[in-house]
């Protein structure tokens, strides 16, 4: 039986980098939430092999694919003899700061758990996800959460009040590793995570908008002027809040009013090829 899983993109409402740890990872505090822009993952049973396929030329169709690695991890860890063919309908921009690869991997963890009847709970899948990448644990649950540690410690949070999210990605890919390498923690700006968490708890849309912040934004802005241009354009078009997601280069706007969201989308459409106007999801679709 074929299994379908939705793999939604995430945005960072806030992202703070606290310090570099002795194991080489950075200690972070991130408030993340899912948006209604998703890859579609199709899993088809196979006798023993794992294969992965997508029509996107930016995504590897081999063992480098995070979705492949998720299936391989489950097969090896639980001694599963069966295989799976993974097809990824790629809708999330790649290397964009939207955790597309991590969300695909999380969807495969959930999907093969069902397909191979492994009976694992979400917490167990999230722990396994952390072995693949720091954002995979959050993506296993989706919804809205505070992520700490290197991003793998997840505390579920209340969804933000509904609003539009306009996403715009310039035609550059950004490697997360290179952004961290260029980060000077002393000179960087740090968002107020506590205030963001409070605003979410209170369902306070203005408070959320006032406290968006991303320590990595300054690094990416200095390297890619397109990111700053998109930010300016979105602010001028009347966004309630504007921030770069993850290590970028995607910039998002939060907007309550329909007409204003449409105006921001239209103004960016002529400027960037990848522009999306989607709803905030924010709640868990997987239990
Ligand atoms: P994050 O926000 O977690 O840093 P990202 O959105 O910046 O992630 P991805 O789209 O996940 O980045 O892609 C990062 C790299 O991972 C790409 O260069 C791509 O080649 C590789 N990759 C491996 N598997 C996938 C996948 N299933 N989808 C997208 N990219 C993948």
UniProtKB/TrEMBL annotation:
Positions annotated to bind ATP: 93-103
Family matches, as Pfam families: GHMP_kinases_C, GHMP_kinases_N
Presence of the UniProt keyword Transferase in the record: yes
Pathway(s) of this molecule: Isoprenoid biosynthesis; isopentenyl diphosphate biosynthesis via DXP pathway; isopentenyl diphosphate from 1-deoxy-D-xylulose 5-phosphate: step 3/6
Function: Catalyzes the phosphorylation of the position 2 hydroxy group of 4-diphosphocytidyl-2C-methyl-D-erythritol.
Record-linked InterPro entries: GHMP_kinase_C_dom (IPR013750), GHMP_kinase_C_sf (IPR036554), GHMP_kinase_N_dom (IPR006204), IspE (IPR004424), Ribosomal_Su5_D2-typ_SF (IPR020568), Ribsml_uS5_D2-typ_fold_subgr (IPR014721)
Native organism: Halobacillus litoralis
UniProt KW keywords: ATP-binding, Isoprene biosynthesis, Kinase, Nucleotide-binding, Transferase
Reaction equations catalysed: 4-CDP-2-C-methyl-D-erythritol + ATP = 4-CDP-2-C-methyl-D-erythritol 2-phosphate + ADP + H(+)
Catalytic center residues: 10, 135
GO molecular-function terms, A-Z: 4-(cytidine 5'-diphospho)-2-C-methyl-D-erythritol kinase activity; ATP binding
Gene Ontology biological process terms in this record: isopentenyl diphosphate biosynthetic process, methylerythritol 4-phosphate pathway; terpenoid biosynthetic process
Gene3D superfamilies xref list: 3.30.230.10, GHMP kinase, C-terminal domain
EC number(s) stated in the UniProt entry for this protein: 2.7.1.148
Name of this protein: 4-diphosphocytidyl-2-C-methyl-D-erythritol kinase
Domain GHMP kinase N-terminal: 65-143
Top-level division of the source organism's lineage: Bacteria
């Amino acid at each position: 039986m074929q299994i379908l899983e939705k793999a939604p993109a995430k945005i960072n409402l806030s992202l703070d980098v606290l310090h570099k740890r002795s194991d080489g990872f950075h200690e972070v505090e991130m408030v993340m939430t899912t948006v209604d822009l998703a890859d579609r993952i199709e899993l088809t049973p196979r006798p023993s092999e794992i294969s992965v396929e997508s029509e996107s030329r930016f995504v590897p169709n081999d063992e480098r694919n995070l979705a492949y690695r998720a299936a391989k991890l489950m097969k090896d860890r639980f001694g599963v003899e069966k295989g799976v063919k993974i097809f990824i309908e790629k809708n999330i921009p790649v290397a964009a700061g939207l955790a597309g690869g991590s969300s695909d991997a999380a969807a495969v963890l959930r999907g093969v758990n069902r397909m191979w009847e492994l009976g694992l709970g979400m917490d167990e899948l999230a722990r396994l996800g952390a072995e693949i990448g720091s954002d995979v644990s959050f993506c296993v649950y989706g919804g809205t959460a505070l992520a700490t540690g290197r991003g793998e410690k997840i505390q579920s949070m209340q969804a933000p009040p509904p609003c539009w999210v306009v996403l715009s990605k310039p035609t550059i890919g950004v490697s997360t590793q290179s952004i961290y390498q260029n980060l000077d923690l002393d000179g960087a700006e740090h968002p107020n995570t506590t205030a963001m968490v409070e605003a979410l708890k209170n369902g306070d849309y203005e408070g959320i908008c006032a406290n968006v912040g991303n320590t990595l934004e300054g690094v990416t802005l200095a390297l890619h002027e397109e990111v700053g241009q998109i930010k300016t354009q979105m602010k001028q078009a009347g966004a309630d809040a504007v921030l770069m997601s993850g290590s970028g280069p995607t910039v998002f706007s939060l907007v309550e009013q329909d007409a204003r969201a449409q105006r921001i989308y239209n103004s960016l459409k002529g400027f960037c090829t990848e522009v999306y106007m989607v709803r905030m999801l924010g709640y868990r679709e997987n239990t």
